[in-house]
Design goal:
The complex is a heterotrimer of chains A (about 250), B (about 80) and C (about 160).
Chain A: E1 15-19, E2 25-28, H1 29-48, H2 59-79, H3 87-102, H4 115-137, H5 139-145, H6 154-198, H7 214-250
Antiparallel strand pairs in A: 1-2
Chain B: H1 2-19, H2 24-43, H3 48-62, H4 64-78
Chain C: H1 8-141, H2 146-163
Helix pairs in contact in C: 1-2
The chains are: A mainly alpha (about 250), B mainly alpha (about 80), C mainly alpha (about 160).
Amino acid sequence: MNAPIPAPQVSGPQIFFTIPILGGIHITETIVNGWLVVAIISLVCFFLGRNLSTRNPSRRQIAVEKLVSMLSNLLQETMGKNNMFFLPYIGALFAYSMLSSLLGLTGLRAPTGDLNTTIGFALIAFFLIQFFNIKNKGFFGWLKGFSEPVFFLTPLNIISEIANPISMAFRHFGNIASGIVITSLIYYALASVSRLLIGWIPVIGSIPILQVGIPAFLSIYFDVFTSFLQAYIISMLTMVYVGGANEAQSE
Amino acid sequence: MEMTEAIVRAASAVGAGLAMIAGIGPGIGQGYAAGKAAEAVGRQPEAKGDITSTMLFGCAVAESTGIYGLVVAMILLFANPLI
Amino acid sequence: MEFVSIDTWTIIFTWINLIILMFVMKKLLFKPVMKMLAERENEVGSMYEKAESAQQNAEKLEGEYTQKLSEAKEEAARIMKDATDAANKKGEQIVFEAQQKASASILKAQKEIEREKLNAVSEIKKDIASIAVSVAEKVIEKDINEKDYERLVEEFIESSGEEK
């Protein structure tokens, strides 16, 4: 008989090495892949943002213009004109989130499949919301805002305020991580099925043939579609929440 | 001790399965949203792009409860704090 | 690491990544593209302005030309009229002079006629006198009756009366 198939290993990001300062900084797969994503996006931006001309734009330039103007229009619609300085952050968030998720296609571990990354995204939004609320209402006005409309709702208000970033983080993480889990489960299942079907053939039987090709179709849904959607959702939610917090000032 | 661990593992697996019942809610909700979106597209085909993006956004937000269940299930299965 | 775990350093590294990415995208993508878009807008605006000013210029020039043209036409008409007037005047003068000449020559002719007439009359008078003399001679020579005599006298008187 063949050796037993190893059970699906679904584990967190592996730690490459630990810098022994400040209680040990773990350099994990997430961080390294994040750097990779930053490098890729920087390179792409470098190539996209070069040689722009006002007349006779090349095809590449038309695409870039379309992209930038689409993003800035979206930003203007959701956050208003006085929040246009968020454009680089939203663009960075969108690109980082999307490319991180798409990295799962290459077999590397997607940085967004780590809860810490998405918590990072969500915490930035949370801090921005609180910052703009304090800035626009004043510190005591901000504190008072929690006891509205009735005093005893304060705990509920605080919980709903904290639930926002948690829900954002877990939504993004859950979508990508479920993709990772399901992909590994499918690999396991396909290995089992191919062993059942062709396992008796001496040499070829040890190769899990069904693992070739079939997961690609699934990863198109779990990775490409979900990546785009989750990147859109997290940027949109950040825009809506932060825009809502900073809108009170302009009224 | 081994017995205890086995019981905890089994219970965790059952718990993960139960947690995934949370998937019912988003399923119904998203189906309803998609149906309404189809209706809206039927009524106003020219606004298809807006309707689709709004629907996807709403769906993704409505999905969060299901995702919470999924995260709980995954914690129970792969990162069980009880063992 | 655990599948679901919280690691502060990963969060911090995510923030650092995001901030780096934000500045990189701002510097390399958004700034140039936005600048280019603004430049294009300016260019298009200035083009429109130029076109508008050119159109205004053209309209102004057209107005000027039309005015000049009408002025020239007026001038031409005026010159034409002047020439016609002068010609008319000259013609009239010529006609007037001709008439004067004609009337002068008529006058002269009349005077000539008058003089000729006077001459003729005086000659006739002379003739009549001579005829009367001859008639008288003849009467005297011949016998004339009463009746003839009377007639002769009458005739003479009459003719001399006519002459007068």
